[in-house]
Amino acid sequence: MKEISQVPSLTFLAKSRQIYKDPLPFHRENFQKYGNTFKISPKPGLMIHFTCDEKITQHILQKNQKNFHKSSLQTDDLGKYIGHGLLTENGEKWRANRKLIQPAFYKKSINNFMETMDVVIQEELNRIQLGAITDVYTIFNDLAFKVVARSLFDFADIDDLDNKISRLQYITEHAQKMLIKELRIPWMKWYFDREWLSGRNSVPHALALVDEARGILRTIINNRRESDKEPGDLLDMLLHSTYEDGTHMEDDQLVDEILVLFIAGHETTANALSFAAQLMAHHPGAIEKVKNEINHVKEDTLMRELMESPYLKQCVEETLRLYPPAYVTDRVALEADQCAHLKIEKDSIWLVSFYEMHRRKDLWESPEQFIPERFTPEKAKKYRDFYFPFGAGPRMCVGNNFAMMEMMLVIRRMLEQFEIKTVQGHIDYHPLITLKPRNANLIFHSTMNQ
C-alpha cells in the first residue's frame, strides 16, 4: 500500500499564521513537495488528508460517494448558521430533499425566471458609476442576492419586500463573517461565545440575527400559504413539491433550504462574476470575441440566446477553472476503504483541492493562463474527469444551471453596456469559506460614447 507523506508538525506550526491568512500557498508548496496527496496533523488526535488527485477525488465524490459524508465543519459549524439544508445535511434526509428540490432547477424551470433575472441585472448594472474606480464585488454581490430573492419570491405577493431582502442580506453576510472568525481564530472561541464581552462580534448575537432571518422567511411562507396566489416563483415550486410518500416539506426545513439558496446561491455567483469581469478586462481579445458573438446571436428567448453563445460560456468555464468559488471540499470516510494502492482509514478526513487540481501542469496546458478556447466542445471532453467547478457526483451543486445562465447573462449585459478597463496588473483573492475576490477594481465607460 502507498504511504502518504506527512508535513512535519513544526513546519505547520511555523506557518500557521500565514495559513490562517491564506492557506493556498501552503497547499501548493506541499503538493509540489510531496505529490498530489499529503497529510497534516494540525493538533494532537486530528489528521487531515489533502489531495488534488483526480482519481482519489472521483472515488470519494462519485464512485464510492456513499462511504463519504461531509465533515462536522459543514454539518455542525456551518449548519448552526444556515440550518440543515442541502449544503449541510448528510444521508437519507439529504437524498430526499435533493430529489424534491432538483426539479426547481431544471432548465425548463429556470427559463421561467430569465426575464426576472434580466430586469434585476440591468437595474444593478445601471448603478455603476462611469469613469470611477469600482470594486465590482460590491455590485455583483448585491446583484446576485437580488436575483436569488426575486426568483424565490414574487414581488407583488409580499409587502415591503425590498427592506426584507436588504435585512436578509445583512444577516446572512454577518453570519458568514462570524463563522469565518470562529474557524480562522479558534483560540478566540471563548470570547466569541460571550455576548457580554464581544457584543456584535459574538456568536449569540449572530445566532439571534439568524433567528430574525428565519422569522422573516416564515412570515413570507405563511402569507403565501394563506393566499390563493400561485405566481410560479421558486417558493411556489417548493411549496407544491412532494416527497415520494406524497407529503410536503415542513416549514422549518423549507426555511433551512431557502437560507442555503440565499447564502450558497448568491456568494459563489458574486465571486465568480467578479473574477470573470477582471479576467475579461485583462484580455480585451476575449471581450471582442464575446461582443462579436452577441451581435450574431438572435433567438426567440434569452435562454436560447445564451445557449447559442458558446464562447461566452467558455469564458465563464475558464473563470471557474482558475477561480472556483467552492475551491475546496471535505469528506469523512464512514468505513475503511481503498482507492488503487491507497488505504483510506475509517473516520479519516479528506480535503479535496479543486483549485490545485484545476492548475496542475500535467493535466492542463498553460494552466495559469486564461484560455477560454480550451473549453470548445471538442476539447472539453478530455477535462471532464478533473474539472469540477460545481463539485462532483450526486452532491454537485443543485443550482449549477441557474448559476451558469445568470453569469452568462450578466457578462453579456455588462459588455453590451460598458467598456471595462483594469486598474491593476494582477488579480487578488481571499480564500474564506469560498474563494472571494479582493480589490476587484475596474473602471467602466459607456459603450454609447464609443
Explain how this protein is built.
The chain is an alpha+beta fold. Helix 10 (161-184) runs antiparallel to helix 13, helix 15 packs across helix 18 (310-322) and helix 15 (251-282) crosses helix 21. The chain is built from 21 helices and 13 strands. It is globular, with a radius of gyration of 22 Å. Helices cover 54% and strands 12% of the residues. The protein has a single domain, classed as Cytochrome P450 (Cytochrome p450).
Give the structure's gist in a few sentences.
By secondary structure, the protein is an alpha+beta fold. A hairpin with a 3-residue loop joins β11 (428-431) and β12. It has 21 helices and 13 strands.
Task: List its salient traits.
alpha+beta; 450 residues; 6-stranded mixed β-sheet; 21 helices; Cytochrome p450; 3-stranded antiparallel β-sheet
Residue stretches low in confidence (pLDDT < 50, at least 5 long) are none
- From the structure provided, what is the oligomeric state, counting identical versus distinct chains? single chain
Strands ordered across the widest β-sheet: 1-2-3-9-6-4
For the record, give the distance between the C-alpha atoms at the N and C termini, rounded to a whole number: 64 Å
* Envelope shape: globular
Helix content: 40-55%
Q: Which structural category do the helix and sheet elements fall into?
A: alpha+beta
